[in-house]
Amino acid sequence: MQLFGVVNASPDSLHSESIVDSPEAALTRAATLLSAGADAIDLGGQGSTDIAEVVHWTIEWQRLESIVPALAALGVPLSIDTWRPEVARRAIVAGATVLNAADGMQSDEMWEVAAEFDVPVVVPFLSGPDPRSMAMVERDPVDAIVEFFDARLQQADRYGMRDRCILDPGTGFAPPNWPWEQRYHYQKRVYTNLDVLRQFGLPIYIALPWRRTDQHDELLEIVVRQQPDYGRVHHPERVRSLERDLGIG
Fold this sequence. Notes:
By secondary structure, this protein is an alpha/beta fold. It has a single domain (2-246), classed as Alpha-Beta Barrel (TIM Barrel). 41% of the residues lie in helices and 14% in strands. The chain has helices at 23-35, 57-64, 67-72, 85-94, 108-117, 141-158, 180-191, 214-226, 236-246; strands at 2-8, 40-44, 78-82, 98-101, 121-124, 165-168, 205-207, 230-233. The protein has an 8-stranded parallel sheet with strand order 6-5-4-3-2-1-8-7. The longest helix has 18 residues, at 141-158. The termini are close together. The model has no long low-confidence stretch (mean pLDDT 93).
C-alpha cells in the first residue's frame, strides 16, 4: 500500500500533530512522515470536520501558497486536499501532482481542472455536496457507494478521465453528530466489502483510522488485510508495523 502522509495547513484539524503554519514546519512534518514509512504527502488548507471554520478560498490558498512548492521540491507525490477548483488549480500549478477532491468530484469545475492538468484524482464517496453536509446513509452503504461511483465515473468519461480516478469510499468523512458506535459499524461494513469496489478496475484509497482504541485498531487491521492501493495516514509507522506483522508488503 502506498501511503500519503497527512500535512494540515488548516489550524483546526482534529489531529494536532499534523498542523503546520509555515513551509519550514511543513517540511519537518513531511520528513517525519517519510522517514516513518510514507511514500507521498497529502496537504490540505481547509478543515472538513464540523468544528472547522469554513474560510473563503483565498484564505485557504493563503495558507497553502508557500507550502505547496516547498513540499513539491521533495520530489515525492503531493496531493492537494480541497473541494474548491480555485485552490486545486493554483496548487497544481505550484507543484501538486494529485487532486484529492473533497467535494467527491460532483462539480464540472473540478473535472475541468483535473482534465486540464491530467492529474490523478482521488474521488471520495459523499452523501452530500461537501464533507460538512454529509447526510446519514440509511441503507446498505456499499450499495450507496457503488451507485455514487457509477455516477461520478459517467462524469469522468465526459472528460476522458476515468483511468485517472482513484476510488475512496469516503470513510474519513461522516455526518456531524454521528455517534461513534454507528460510525464504527458503518466503517466495518464498508471495509469488509472493499472487493466490491474492485469491479470498477480502478485503484482504491482509504483514509486510515488513526485513533488508538480497540475498535479503531480492529478497523485498521481489516483495511490493511484488504490491501488497498493507497492509504491516507497520520502515523505511517503503525501501518508499516501492522503490515510486517501480517506478512504483507
